User: What shape does this take?
Amino acid sequence: MPDLPVSTAPVTRAQPVAAHGAHAPPGLQIRDLALRYDRRTIFEGLDLDIKGGEFVVLLGTSGVGKSSLVKIIAGLARPSEGSVTASDGQPLQHRIAYMGQQDLLYPWLNVIGNVMLGSRLRREKGDRQRALGLLARVGLADRAQALPSQLSGGMRQRAAIARTLYEDRPIVLMDEPFSALDTFTRARVQDLAAELLQGRTALLITHDPLEACRLGHHLVVLSGHPARLGPPISIHGPTPRAPDDEELLHTQGHLMRVLTELEPK
Amino acid sequence: MNPRLSAVTRPLLTLFGLVAVWFVVSKVSGTPAYLLPDPQSVAQALWSQRHLLLWSAGTTFTETVLGLLLGTILGSLVALGMVFSPMLQRWLMPLLLLSQAIPVFALAPLLVLWFGFGMASKVVMAILVIFFPITAAFSDGLRRTEIGWLDLARTMNASPAAMLRHVRLPAALPAFGSGLRVATAIAPIGAVVGEWVGASAGLGYVMLNANARIQTDVMFAALLVLAMMAILLWVAVDRILKRVLYWAPDTTAAA
Assistant: This one.
């Protein structure tokens, strides 16, 4: 099944998704975070500040503990040391949405059911109109009744974005959500994510330097054994950046060098 | 070939072939009718004993379905209990294994003694036979919930009850379905074994009586009815499961 064309930037930009009120989204403060299993230290001494509304990308090679870090921030796992707090001092619970490595659509629910999953799980009355609106935003308006198994990989990931947006949380964590997609589908879904997540605090984990440079305001590299965070690299200009953007190409080259040097031979 | 047509004609062709082989063997081999009756005499027995056979099939069917229903409920409850209480699991698992280690044939006389010659002992027998596949398959399914689905539900602040109802249970349904298919196929065994040991009704009882009187054609007729009943029951359960599990990928469907 071919992917439907995703609505183009000017149309969607006209109606921002910052539905979570006029408040600025909270930032994230990670302090001295460490994770150890028995005597093996996965990472330690992690400090990271993400300002409210910023899109930060965390890069690192496989097995360096990226997913564990996201799970700790999402409250799904406990760190061995350190803390993750919101910059406004309020608890993080109920304010974080999570997108995993797979789309994690429940195969027994249709697309609209998956988008409204949070309401079902919390026994709230679902907002069907809003869910349908979000599906329209990700170009799946006519697939609301379809089962996930009837969708292509790109469509599934777009449905997952709609589900994430339905949660309407100010902080969004993404653990390599686009890594299973082919290059072109990935680029389209990245564009969509960059647009729709504007106004939210976002942390994206990836091993793809191009993805990082297209979407991030700031990039940080997690590397080493035990892993530590490198100094943040900032890229200027609006996102999503075109793949041939000067700034992007420059940073991507720099990143490739950094990642290659860090990788043990 | 039209797949719908072939779905009907293929079993019929198989049946026709079996009957043909049976006919030839019974004619050519010269085996006496009390050892191998020919198809015509079995057909005659089917017709002349139709009231007895139908009534007996009703009894066996009721026992089987009751055993299946109660065994499924009991097996599912035990599976749920074991998944959510490791202590229950430690205490129950040896008992479950024990219940499967003792052949139901060996238990049958005891069960008839305890539960009488009526339907109850046969239902208990069927429960004993199907209980384990249901518990094993369902608890396996409940244990293997995709971690990502649970993580996602947790970030959505789902209560443990909501996680069970909306994530673990539906995710375990395909495994439960496999268990139920196995259970359906073997449930009649429990009922018939019970009838052999001591009963006043049912297809097993008819077979036992016919055997004592060397009415081999009636035995064959009862066996045929039993086979038809088992197949119909299985097809019905399979249909229901396919309808309930419409979302579960059936990779054989494309073939």
